[in-house]
Structure formats: structure tokens, C-alpha cells
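Good morning C.,

I know you're traveling, so I'll keep this short. The sequence:
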Amino acid sequence: MKKPVFKRVVLKLSGEALQGKLGYGVDPTVASSIAQQIKEIRRLGIDVAIVIGAGNIFRGLQASKAGMDRSTADYIGMLATVINSMVLQDALEKIKVQTRVLSALDIQELAEPYIRRRAMRHLEKRRVVIFAAGTGNPYFTTDTAAALRAIEIGAEVILKATKVDGVYSDDPVKNKKAKKFKKLSYLEVLKKGLKVMDATAVSLCMDNQLPIIVFDLTKSGNIRRVMMGKSIGTCIS
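The C-alpha cells, ready to paste straight into the viewer:
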């Protein structure tokens, strides 16, 4: 039987991934579907950590542009990621996948505080770990949090789950002639201004030689396909 190509991964989910076809909030059926895909790769013996955004609930950058203090807006966004983390934890534990939420903000009634050694211990005990509240600092995105946590726990790759099947030269929904990239270097992403992850996150990955695979989460089984080395989406390295 073919073995997975990675042993430890960080899955980066956007908040929008949880809302499905709803315009806002969380679609429980979508959360259940994502949980099933995670359970499937856990059976392969892969350590899985997750970072979730909050765009389905609150966007700090948009709120700050509308006049809200940027730091306040970013902290509200961090709290929204805790909500999404709890939603996914519930979906995972309903299908008997042991899960722990570790928060960069101290909310002990809801989540454990983020401590690197504790996160490593949970992974060693075969638990799925969800990193909530970003880095705990304003002005840093959940993309940067995903890169930082991946480096801290020794992950081999970041899986950037999106609604499209890779990175394109332009929005493929608006521009049918947009070119899809199979492979990109970190510098190409930065120079072309491709909206894969923010520049801080890409730079962190580049400095630490951490590859990023961008793929379509909406197609069931895609997480497993990536784990088994199938060439889907776009690889940035």
C-alpha cells in the first residue's frame, strides 16, 4: 500500500470554507464534511494541526477601513476564529476524533492556552490540534499564524484549502482566460502579487523552506489526494 508523502501538516482553512453556500456564519453540514476528510487522513497516521480564519463572521481589515480602530478590529477577528475552532472541534469529536483547541488569547473556559510543548504533546498523543486566535497580536493575519505555528511544530507543509483548484494569474471566476500555475517559487508569488497568502506568511515560509500547497477543499477527498502525493492544485516552494 502506498504511504502518505507527509507525516505532519498544518491545514489552513478560511472562515468562508465553513459557511458553504450560506452568505454568513457556519453551515454544520460543511463542517461535518471537512471533519470527515480530516478523519480520513488521520487514519493514515498523519499528524494534523489546523488554523481557521474568521471571514464568515468578521473581517478586521474591512472594519478598520470603515473607521474602527485596527487593533480592536483584529482582536474581534481573533475571537471569531475561536468560534470557528469550536465549531470544527465539535464536528470532529462527533465522529470520535480527539481534538484540542489551543488559543493565543487566554480564554480558559473555552480553550487551552497556546504553549508549543503542549501542542507537540497533543500531536504525539494522536490528537488533532486547532490553533485559534491567530498569533494573539493585531496586524497579523491567520495566514501568518498558520506559517508560524507550522514552523514551531515542525510541520512539513501548509495545506491552503480554498474554493478554487489552485493559484491563477487572475480571478478565474471573473476572467476565463486566467492561467493556472502548477508550481511557483516564493519569490514569484511575492513579485506577481498573487493573493495566495499575505507577504509576511509567504516570507516566513520562504525563510524556513516550508512548502505551501493550494488546493480545492470543496471537492471531497482532495485532502487525502494531496497527502498521497497526487498532483493537484498549486505547489509553492
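Safe travels,
E.
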